[in-house]
Specification:
Helices cover about 35% and strands about 25% of the residues. With about 425 residues, it is of the alpha/beta class. The strands form two sheets. Strands 7, 8, 9, 10, 11, 12, 13, 14, 15, 16, 17 and 18 form a twelve-stranded mixed beta sheet that branches. The protein has a six-stranded parallel beta sheet with strand order 3-2-1-4-5-6, with helices on both faces. Strand 2, helix 2 and strand 3 form a beta-alpha-beta unit. The site of NADP nicotinamide-adenine-dinucleotide phosphate (NAP) has 20 residues, from helix 1.
Length: about 425
């Protein structure tokens, strides 16, 4: 029986989940795959504290396996696979590079370290002939990395669109279902442990942007760096926006969108209205879903748990078995560099429909004036809704536009006559 010795960098939520899954499935994996997976070392910050936390969670990592020295994992001659579950960019990326330099295959669930250091990590892997696996870095258990890296290798993908952050999807779902405001739902999510005490990485869209940079690079076979991703979060979304969108047949999601047309590439993360019958509209709570369109495969939608110790552990253990059985590691076919792919023309003037909510004075001629300004910038209105007069005597006007270039839309909004209306919200709409 082939034995593969594994080391963990980090033994928190995901490390504990992977330990549990491997313990429970070890005999079954031996039977199915003919490989005995043994975890020999686990890096933690503080051994005494780790023992206490693991005991409370029922995770039985023996004290002899725990170490506070990362080189016990990255440089141990017997360890063949190093799994990184520490999170954050550094020191996680340097530790992974050290492991790769010492010929260990590396498996990571860390989108930040991967998105920002992918080129260096891949170069180290290729140099030592080691493998680099990262299925759980995007979409938790959803097998999207494998689909893009292997199944669609010979296709020509032109669109990837998804809900890839569970925290924001949970918040938006509750705002939609309960009509509550952002701050109240965020506080609840924090109390339930579904949002971090500092929620910025999720609610300001950074988490989705790291993941989109990885997905777009794989989908389009060229480096799309994190810095290229246009990013807007959900912090200024109100219950009124969501209710007005619902009145017009739309549901609000934080979408990560990557499109390619010829060499023109756009990558963006922002709140987006989708029609109520759109497949992504029904993806609720902390679920994730990713839609892919390719020239030959047509449409693919993948959905599942984007987080959680055991779903994520399931994806990671798939990588571990692959790494243990792999004869020759597979690397992305594109030249992975620190810089963007030179042949891509990145565009921030994408074509989009928009939901526009204005507060306007209630008098004749106002609508005509707004429509005229829009038309002058070649933004045409598809539908309009007028809400009842407010206590301040103003009315809420809501428009959905036809597709227009982003910059025309912005110019039109900046030229609206401030003496008759003010812009309350602009949210893009995706078909
Ligand atoms: N949680 C999920 O559902 C999920 C899903 C997909 C991907 N991921 C990714 O998986 C990774 C781990 O997430 P997690 O939820 O397991 O986080 P976590 O519970 O905070 O675990 C990380 C562990 O690593 C330890 N650590 C951090 N820096 C260290 C260092 N320099 N030396 C030794 N130990 C160190 C932490 O110790 P301290 O607690 O003492 O700092 C903590 O025990 C992250 O990259 C995350 O993005 C998580």
């Amino acid at each position: 029986m082939k034995k593969t010795v594994i080391g963990f960098l980090g033994g928190g939520n995901i490390g504990g989940g992977v330990w549990r899954l491997l313990s429970e499935m070890r005999e079954e994996i031996k039977k199915r795959d003919g490989v005995d997976l043994e975890v020999r070392k686990v890096l933690v910050k503080d051994i005494a504290e780790a023992l206490e936390i693991n005991a409370a969670k029922g995770i039985d990592i023996p004290v002899g396996c725990l170490t506070q020295d990362y080189t016990d994992v990255t440089r141990d001659d017997e360890i063949q696979i190093v799994c990184e579950f520490m999170g954050g960019e550094q020191p996680a990326a340097s530790y992974m590079e050290d492991a790769l330099n010492h010929g260990k295959s590396v498996i990571t669930a860390n989108k930040v370290a991967l998105a920002l250091n992918w080129a260096q990590l891949q170069a180290a892997a290729e140099k030592s002939g080691a493998g680099l696996w990262y299925e759980a870095s995007v979409g938790g258990v959803i097998p999207v990395i494998r689909v893009l890296l292997q199944n669609l290798e010979s296709d020509s993908v032109d669109r990837v669109m998804g809900i890839i952050n569970g925290t924001t999807n949970y918040i938006l779902t509750r705002m939609t279902n309960e009509g509550k405001d952002y701050d109240e739902v965020l506080r609840d999510a924090q109390r339930l442990g579904l949002a971090e005490p500092n929620p910025a990485a999720d609610v300001e869209g950074m988490d989705s942007a790291y993941k989109l940079s990885i997905l777009a690079s794989l989908a389009f076979h060229g480096r799309v760096t994190y810095g290229r991703v246009h990013r807007e979060g959900i912090t200024n979304i109100t219950a009124t926006d969501i209710a007005c969108g619902a009145d017009m047949g739309y549901v609000l999601k934080l979408l990560a969108i990557a499109k390619k047309d010829g060499n023109k590439v756009e990558v963006r993360v922002h709140p987006t209205f989708v029609k109520k019958d759109h497949p992504l509209a029904k993806v609720d709570g902390s679920l994730n879903a990713i839609f892919i369109h390719g020239k030959y495969c047509n449409d693919i939608t993948l959905q599942g748990r984007g987080a959680g110790d055991l779903p994520t552990a399931s994806a990671i253990c798939g990588d571990i078995v692959d790494a243990a059985l792999c004869v020759k590691p597979r690397y992305p076919s594109f030249k992975n560099t620190v810089e963007d792919e030179a042949s891509f023309a990145f565009s921030d003037n994408w074509n989009t429909r928009a939901f526009i909510r204005l507060s306007a004075v209630d008098r004749p001629g106002v609508l005509a004036s707004i429509a005229k300004t829009m038309m002058e910038e070649e933004v045409s209105i598809a539908t309009m809704l007028q809400k009842d007069v407010q206590p301040d005597g103003r009315v809420q006007l809501i428009f959905i536009t036809h597709p227009a270039p982003e910059q025309s839309l912005r110019r039109a909004l900046s030229r609206l006559d401030a003496s008759i209306c003010s812009l309350e919200q602009m949210i893009r709409v995706e078909d």
